[in-house]
Structure prediction request, 471 residues.
Amino acid sequence: MSRDNRVVGEKNQVQCIVTDSGRIVTEKELKKYEVPSSKQLSSGMFKYDKTIAPPHDLMKLMSWLYLSVVHNSCVNTKVQDTVGIGYFLEPEEEAKIKDKEKDKNYKFLMDFFNKVNDKENLTKMLKKVALDYEGCGNSYIEVSRGKDGKVNGLYHVNATTIKWHRDKDKLVQKVGQKYVYFKLFGEEKILDRFTGEWVDTIGDLDAVANEVIPIIQYTFMSAVYGLPEWLPALYYMYGDMKEMEYNTDFFSNFGIPAYALIIEGGTLTQEVSDEVSKYFETTLKGSSHKTLTLGTPSGVTLRFERLSVETKEASFRMYHKDNRDSILTAHRVPPYRAAIVEQGSLGGNVATETDRIYLDSVINPRQADFSWIINELIIKQGLEINGWIFGFEDINVDDRDKDSQIYQRYVNIGAMTPNEVRQELGLEAYEGGDVHYLPGSYVPVSGEQDDTKPDKEGKEPDGVDDTGSEE
Prediction:
């Protein structure tokens, strides 16, 4: 049954309204003012346990964002670098669109992406989706449609609240004791979002289930769920957390690193013992500049000797650094992008190559996956628009600056024409731009024409000799 031929409500029923001025507004006109809506848990309560359990507790995986500073920084860095920099729309080559700003489809798509639902633009919505994707390896986009069957809204669905049905043809979201169903994107059958039953017709439009697009990181442990790539670093994150707990407990209980009290020429009296204990347990806490005054018998000296905690502190620092490096390795994020700066960090060509590896192996593949969903599922299938390509902006802005300098140098030495540069950049050629210039000048090579005119005597412009070099 095609989407256009499905029956919703009574057959041959024409919906319209009559305004207070007596005007009749038809269903076709009402579609223009249709408001997209999410159908995540607005009503419906019943018991249900026919779901597939994920291979790991997704809520616990997400909770590590608040337990590990390094992990949190890596996740948010990848989210921002993947979908948070910005996006663009370019016409396909075969579309032959000269002025995209005047194209109605371009305007429609940009307006839609600027407000994919009543509260968010595309970037804000995708950052939530990407956070789930990086945090637990699973993410979902809810898709709503208008009466014309086209997509009219996109929403983030909390990945920790949704599970796959055993039939693998629908998903169930649960919050508390409330449940709601979703069908997979592109499924034309009607699903009742309250009961989870497939039906031929449905009278209540609000009961029609919305669609979801699952985006997961593949794992061999499940056919429908994913797992995050950082999972092997879980033990290192746990070790870091225990080290922090140990240090917190140590300083909370003892106040300062341990000292040995050495008495020479006498014995430790109860009075001295009580005074020392009181000093360390109460007086010294909250201030490191309190003075302890003790009275001792003649010939008796007291000496405090700090115990060997430096080695323990050094070992903790080394342990923390090893854990941090392992977490960075699992995420494949360069330290500086996670706001970690060290002396003797990589520089020059090595740093550039590290950035390139990060872009090629981490960010670009993610951008390709999210771009494919927007291009193939949302734009082409959901909105039925062709001729446009959606893409994410690259984080490596420095490359563009370097490229512009290289192109300028090529034009200056006559290796490329301005139009050849514009072709490389995907821009339209202009008249007079197919000219090669002599090295170090904007004088065209002999036989090529541009707007540059010689002086009255037919000589080259001032400042350039007949060899093309500057005077």
Residues 374 and 383 are 10 Å apart (CA to CA). Residues 16-228 form one domain. The two ends are 79 Å apart (CA to CA).
